[in-house]
Design brief:
Number of strands: 3
Helix content: 40-55%
Order of helices and strands: HHHHEEE
Protein name: Pilus assembly protein
InterPro entries: Tad_N
Strand order of the largest sheet: 1-2-3
Shape: rod-shaped
Keywords: Membrane, Transmembrane, Transmembrane helix
Distance between the termini: 98 Å
Number of helices: 4
Number of domains: 1
Radius of gyration: 29 Å
Length: about 150
């Protein structure tokens, strides 16, 4: 065997290895782009869930027993009306929440929301969705406070 033939045999096992590396790098770049794009969408959806929970809780906290408040100044939230107001507020939004929990105590309303956000680019690396949630508690404000 001559030196040039020996050299060709040594180079042959490495042939095409750069192509495999380029493919791996492209997949990694798509994964990073997916984290940026879909991660941003998940963060926005989470903030939106918190905002919606806050507004829904405020709508529920406005449902106080007016007669009792006028009689002795006690602030009590009417549970059925508060839950109805929360669900009515959420129904007018263009978002679908998979979990909605409303808790009403004597003077506060707690709303917990959850939804699933589908991914776009991360589906290429087998991540199909993110679960996001938000919660808030609201209390009614009555009168002129100091």
């Amino acid at each position: 065997m001559t030196a040039s033939t020996l050299r060709r045999h040594r180079e042959a096992p490495e042939r095409g290895s750069i192509s495999a590396m380029v493919i791996v790098l492209i997949v990694m770049l798509f994964a990073v782009a997916g984290l940026i794009y879909d991660g941003g969408r998940a963060i926005n959806a989470r903030q939106q869930a918190f905002d919606d929970a806050e507004q829904a809780a405020r709508a529920g906290a406005n449902q106080i027993d007016i007669d009792r408040f006028r009689a002795d100044g006690t602030v009590v939230i009417v549970q059925g009306e508060a839950e109805y107001a929360v669900r009515q507020y959420l129904a007018q939004l263009d978002r679908t929440y998979t979990t909605v929990r409303v808790g009403v105590t004597g003077d506060s309303v707690e709303v917990d929301l959850g939804r699933t956000v589908p991914t776009g680019l991360l589906q290429l690396v087998f991540v199909s969705s993110f679960d996001v949630s938000g919660s808030a508690i609201a209390q009614p404000e009555v009168g002129i406070g100091g």
